[in-house]
């Protein structure tokens, strides 16, 4: 499709006006970026981006990430003009209103054209690295006919200042993700003033140093924008295009200043902008010829889609792969592992149990891609037969992230969002703090990466309090839509893996121990971890209390049960591998498991949160402080996480 510069200018003006009108009506929003980057967006979406509004989730479409998510109105205007069926002018008018699809920042799932939720700066560009990597991995397996597309990003100074972008961009350079193209809105303005007051980084030199191709253009010159895109498309490296723009372009009195960044233009400034552009249409109305040009741009890739669709529909393996359809009987070997562990009474750390599980998972699920933040030897996330992805060979299933937890979390999101990949990644549980923003976004987007977080308690021992997670279990249990598993043995670990892999809309944490635990389950017929909590060892004598435990502390509770039984004192031991799943069970089931006797909770972590299970008169054995350095068993004893303490707590209820 041939678009003259004059037509592109008309289309860009329409983008600016509609975006500014919606922000003005909402009395809230960020007009600066939509006005400043409208020219770049018009050229990209009008001439180059391969999409199909009639089939918005077309797998081989180009991906687009608005990393500067505060400029969301630019995206919504684009979707409306391009003809996406799930957005109307009424949705534009309802920008930032409660319940509107057109939320303050783009929300994945609200509109079919949104490829990810953005807003926290740096997350978008970093997740885009995962999308670009997924494209290369699937291309290596199925070829150009089925998977061959670009990932485009618009980011601002804030995205480049956030440290996560450095981690992710350095990996993109290492992996030579040449189909990743980033447009930097280089306008020298942040909320508080000019960029030079807070940053003097030469971004082009920085990106060149980590293996990127870099270009610098006038972001309002259509010929330069087109030439840069075409040059980037033929690069053998990822490309950063520095687009020198004027924030709030077209707003005569506010452009180029922080005043236009995060506040509506105001009625007078909006009117002055329209007058400057010669815009005479009524509010929220666009001349028919401009609408027609945009709708034609939305249809420019229709033939590409049809050709791809015909090839894809004749390849059942590919269709199953990209839809993350699990192979039939994918977990048969995992079920056999559970039975074998019970028979052999396997005694290993749950991080080792996880590795045993992966040995019976990875070779059976082609979509799975693992990795670790330079801790594979400790997380035990790598198993025999896995192959590390490199710039020379993308056909692998292991990622060496280096010491980059921030980037790992975001890249895993990008892998999951792209489709055709089931990602898992490992680090120490305490360092999940570095991944938390990405984990929160995963939960918010209803996607399901798997976090293998080992060294889950004060059992870490000699590494001391800096490496001993205390508040982490409670904090993740407080996060909506994330399942936090802390299994007690091989059987529960395998069950947790089964649930995590089968999860379609919820991320999963596997909090795994450094120290060994015995196999406690005597039967694996039913996946009891799916219930969240269950009676793992019922009382065999006069029952006086219920002891609830997780992970390594379940074995302590069962040992206490045995010793109490010698004194004819009985307790029911409840294993609670996943509080979130237990909370979703019917009230009758939860009452049956917890019982109406006094309750004691035992966990080598913060006591916070357990009061809702033990009640006002119950007891929680745990920590109210950070940990300490010493041998793991000595640290447990120091903080009273012992069989003796459990016994003492039970006897207080007699």
What brief labels describe this structure?
single chain, 654 residues, alpha/beta, Rossmann fold, 3 domains, 6-stranded parallel beta sheet, 5-stranded parallel beta sheet, 20 strands, elongated
Overall description:
The chain contains 27 helices and 20 strands. It is α/β, with parallel strands linked by helices and 654 residues long. Strand 11 (422-428), helix 19 and strand 12 form a beta-alpha-beta unit. The protein starts with a helix and ends with a helix. The model has no long low-confidence stretch (mean pLDDT 98). Strands 10-9-11-12-14-13 form a six-stranded parallel beta sheet, with helices on both faces. Strands 1-2-3-7-6 form a five-stranded parallel beta sheet, sandwiched between helices. Strands 16-18-17-19-20 form a five-stranded mixed beta sheet. The longest helix is centred in the N-terminal third of the chain and has 22 residues, at 5-26. It folds into three domains: 5-309, Rossmann fold (3-Layer(aba) Sandwich); 332-517, Thiamin diphosphate (ThDP)-binding fold, Pyr/PP domains (Rossmann fold, 3-Layer(aba) Sandwich); 530-651, Rossmann fold. Helix 1 crosses helix 4 (72-82) and helix 6 packs across helix 18 (405-418).
Which helices and strands appear, and what pairs or packs with what?
Blueprint: H1 5-26, H2 32-36, H3 38-48, E1 63-66, H4 72-82, H5 89-93, H6 123-142, E2 151-155, H7 157-161, H8 163-175, E3 180-186, E4 189-190, E5 193-194, H9 203-209, E6 213-218, H10 222-233, E7 239-244, H11 267-277, H12 288-298, H13 302-313, H14 316-322, H15 332-344, E8 348-349, H16 350-359, E9 368-372, H17 376-379, E10 398-400, H18 405-418, E11 422-428, H19 432-445, E12 450-454, H20 472-477, E13 483-485, H21 490-502, E14 508-512, E15 516-517, E16 534-537, E17 543-549, H22 553-565, E18 570-575, H23 579-583, H24 587-594, E19 599-606, H25 611-614, E20 619-623, H26 632-638, H27 643-651
